[in-house]
Amino acid sequence: MSAKRAFLFGYVALLVASGIWKTFFPAEIPPLPHQESALVSSGVKGEAPVVIRYLDTKLDANDDRPVLVLLHGSPMASGVFDNLRPALETDYRLLVPDLPGFGRSQRSIPDYSIRAHSRYLESLLETLNVEESHLVGYSMGGGVALEFAGRQEERVASLTLVSSIGLQEYELLGDYTLNRALHAGQLFCLWAVDWLVPHFGGFERVLLNKRYARNFYDTDQRPLEQTLREWQKPVLIVHGDRDPLVPVEAARTHKALMPQAELRVFEGAGHLMIERRAFDVALLVSRFAKEVESGEAIERIELEVGEQVLAAPVAYQRNGYVMAVLLGVATFASEDLACIGGGLLASRDAIPLWLAIVGCLLGIFVGDFAIYLMGRVLGRPALKLPVIRNLLSEQSVERYGRWFDRKGLAVVIGTRFVPGSRVPTYLAAGIIKASPLRFAFALFFAAAIWTPALVGLSYLLGGAFVEFFEQHEGIALLGLLVSTVSILILARLGVALATRRGRRLLYSRWLRLKRWEFWPMWLFYPPVVVFILGKMIRRWSATSLTVVNPCMPESGLVFESKGDILAHLQRHDVPVGRFEIVRAEGSVDAKIERVERFLQHNGLGYPLALKPDMGQRGQGVTIARSASDARAFFEMESGDAIAQEFLSGREFGIFYYRYPGREKGRILSITDKRFVSVTGDGESTLEELILADERAVGMARYFLDAHGSDLDRVILNREVYPLTDLGTHCRGALFLDGAHLLTRELEAAVDAMSRGVEGFHFGRYDIRVPSEADLKAGRNIRVIELNGLTSESTHIYDPKHGLGFAYRALFRQYRIAFEIADEQVQRGETPAPLRRVASLFVAYLAGKGPPKS
User: How far apart are CA 192 and CA 186, in angstroms?
Assistant: First the structure.
């Protein structure tokens, strides 16, 4: 088993185990010894009450000290007040709850917003018979205090806001829709970590988790402005002048909206001053509460008539240069999304448009030039690194070198507008030591065209999109996502449509969507799987099909050895192509030596077919045209392999079946396999010919990758260039329905050789014959391989056949397989145990070899 598949299997197993553990053993933290608990309700119909844990310093039933309610922020819990409590608990009854979702209170709740938390707080105070209290809110807890005060003004004696949120304009980007999009992205990332990283509940104990993200995502701060404007009672605002999370300008604006407020700004203090300057904060809170209790604190009604409330919040002037730097850094993750984000920010006045363009432009330039430098520093040894090896081959580097020689810097500029081409091109440019100054100029020139266009498009269209969706607030976030995706699609479509190559590649994608023959198995096969499951349920057996071909392990379900099947056919005088099994044991040199002996013994030479002994759908098959090709194959293939003579002639697939109780079998389908090629005109390159050919363009991505070293070669006039040399559909071969080729002679010949093979009743031969006439006459047939139970009637892939035809053919194929299985069971054959079949599938999905019987 490859290390990659072993890692994947282990990861999935840990992920499943972690999910089960989190589901059945949720990470609830036990309460502290001094904490009490209560069952409180949000007051929303249909919602179940939740457990809230809290500290209450009430001395006895007659304790009449003023009540201070300390409300923590997110993601912290009540422990943030530990340094504050000693200076307050003598003169005040302290009520310090862990708000639901945090600390030691119930963690899973339906709504994490400050509105919901204010309702939980209301329910807690009613439970404890607290009629009036002083609210002290820290950070997000200040939002809870404001929300509660706006709804229950008569129960609040005063407000103290410490490093507190309030106005929406001072949070992050200053725009509700954009902020919510950021919070949604944060929530998604933390959700992904929670469910895609096996942590067995450990992530629940990390501060920045899903509940913290939900708190911000669920919260809408806009209604708090009304409370700030209308609040009449005393207010104390405490803030640090170096708070990076809630800027001090927010505190000053809160003061402007509440003229009666006392504002204290701590010099040199940040957001955590409630812990680091706890004693000073506690003295302020205590003194302020005493003034409120004695009637000395100022209320709004006591202000002079001339003291006016701020008409509108002052827009917070964010540092545009810092925003530009952040956009530049964001391009390292995704250049296009950063440009679209820059345009959206500019449309909402969060950053000047020119700064958004400059930030994205410089970020793109630096990131792209870093790729070039990496290739230049590492050189050709970088091609052996796993990540780079998947992007770039030695042949690709040579091709890029020829492109640079022929087209110069136009290649670099062109890649800016061709998705997926930039990284390999820039790496190759570094590896071949292209001029750094000329390369940098080309990079900057291309980015200077692309960046303003994309940022500007986002600025114009994105702003309009967001404004429209803001009028329908329920779908505003969806609208922002739609806007971003739409701009990205429009930009990519515009780039693709600008060149013939782009237009033909778009057409290739359209063909692959339109023609079901190109659909992936996971999309095409579900109806067939449902049909098979129905047959299994009707027979009350999930393994009856494993008796169809007793000569193959599990009838050729999976992990059948091609070598063993060919040897079995050979023993029964079936004309198979000469072959040799090359075992996995031994060095590459030993394997090459064995192949050379096989060729010499049989009087053969190159080309030679090399393929894994266990493989499906042409995976890993190579036509080696030299010893160096054979060496490259064995360097990549670690398991047993088959070396087989390369058979010339036409290739066909013949699906045969025979019921055990009948003397003769039948041919179910014939597939005429055509090898796709293009013909040169003396002017067009191979790439241009592939994109112009109506058939080849459907497999353009595969062909362009497979023939990368020749793409820029001009094919001579009338020269036929073969694109495929294997009769495999997923590697470019054209499959045609060969029903018209069926003759009595052909069916008799296939039946004769099949009836002689003990234990074979159902499967597809891949054969080669010198000509179509030989096929019809049933002569000169040479078998390449035989596939068993899971083989297909591949004539369905003929482009003339629709999806319904394909499903009817496959339903008929598996109906016959089940009927053969029924007869085999009646004749005494025993299906494989379910555990065996299940272990085969598990091993196959995990990339392991076949489990032992």
Answer: 10
The 10s digit of each residue's pLDDT in 336-363 is 888 888 888 888 777 889 999 999 999 9
Burial level of 498, CB count in 10 A (0-12/13-18/19+)?
A: exposed
pLDDT tens-digit profile of 741-794?
A: 999 999 999 999 999 898 999 999 999 999 999 999 999 999 999 999 989 999
Please answer whether residues 98 and 47 qualify as being in contact, where contact means their C-beta atoms are separated by less than 8 angstroms: no
The whole model's pTM is what? 0.63
Distance CA 797, CA 805 (A): 10
Sequential DSSP letters for 663-678: S--EEEEEEEEE--EE
Examine residue 851 and say whether the peptide bond preceding it is cis (omega within 30 degrees of 0).
Answer: no
Q: Is 86 exposed, middle or buried (0-12, 13-18, 19+ CB in 10 A)?
A: exposed
Q: Which residue has the tokens 């490259």?
A: 632
Q: Which residues contact 678 (CB under 8 A, 6 or more apart)?
A: 686, 689, 690, 693, 696, 715, 720, 721, 723
Torsion of Cα atoms, 128 then 129 then 134 then 139, to 10° = 40
How far apart CA 566 and CA 757 sit, in angstroms, is 11
Q: What is the 3-state secondary structure (H, E, C) of 348-380?
A: CCCCCHHHHHHHHHHHHHHHHHHHHHHHHHHCH
Token pair 């009450």 is at which residue?
Answer: 49
In Å, what is the CA distance from 611 to each residue of 558, 580, 616, 618? 16, 11, 10, 8
Q: Which residues pair with 679 in a beta bridge?
A: 720
